[in-house]
Design goal:
With 223 residues, the protein is α+β, with helices and mostly antiparallel strands. The chain has one domain. The chain contains six helices and five strands. It starts with a strand and ends in a 24-residue tail after the last helix.
Length: 223
């Protein structure tokens, strides 16, 4: 959401301006080679190809303010707001090794409990407008990324199963788990991945958390 142009509507919500792919852009639910985002050798955002955007105004509500019976769920809506505070002993999100070794297991346990299946954490980045502007770098990792100001899904019907297969091989140069797994160990056994693919029983789930105790005040994530 481009919050610089947002405006309140009464006391219950906001009208936000979202950037969607325009009507002339070829749909990319299947990979088509025409619409894509680029990453550099470190895994940082590195521009777009074929991405033509148009603004749309939509009403936005605060998910935290919804009564329990109106809360959105992962099963019904594809996303869910979960209360899971880290407490005083949370990780330093600007330390790559601390996040990968200490916070990844926490994420895996949280997702596993919600979906009732084993979870394998495999990637992360930190998004901050001020951190991007100052070129802040994560200790032992990549640069801080800026907010993604466009409506999008991270995977297509082509790239999602391909990413699962990639995780059955040793990590590449910009994979966040390279320091943990080394150059000869894979995250997911190949036979388990192929079984999941054959049965159509896998999901790639993004888990987002604000890196400060307070809710995000600018550039909030929206679903």
């Amino acid at each position: 959401m481009q919050d610089s142009r947002a405006r309140p509507i009464g006391s219950t919500g906001t009208v936000g301006v979202f950037r969607y792919l325009d009507a002339a852009t070829r749909p990319s639910l299947f990979r088509n080679g025409e619409v894509l985002t680029r990453r550099d050798a470190e895994g940082s955002d590195h521009g777009f190809r074929g991405v033509n955007l148009e603004p749309r105004e939509l009403a936005v509500s605060d998910g935290r303010a919804l009564p329990v019976h109106e809360r959105r769920t992962l099963a019904a809506n594809g996303f869910e707001l979960v209360e899971c505070p880290l407490g005083a002993g949370g990780p330093d999100f600007f330390d790559h090794d601390e996040v990968v070794r200490g916070y990844y297991p926490h994420c895996a346990a949280l997702v596993s409990a919600k979906v009732g299946a084993e979870a394998f954490p495999f990637d992360h980045n930190v998004r901050s407008a001020s951190g991007k502007q100052s070129r802040k770098r994560i200790v032992g990792g990549q640069q801080v990324q800026g907010p993604a100001h466009l409506v999008h899904g991270d995977y297509t019907l082509t790239s999602a199963p391909q990413r699962l297969r990639d995780l059955t091989r040793p990590p590449g140069g910009n994979d966040t788990l390279r320091a943990v797994l080394g150059s000869d160990q894979a995250l997911i056994p190949a036979d388990r991945a192929e079984h999941a693919l054959g049965a159509g029983r896998f999901a790639i789930i993004n888990l987002w958390r604000n890196i400060a105790p307070e809710p995000v005040a600018t550039h909030p994530i929206a679903f």
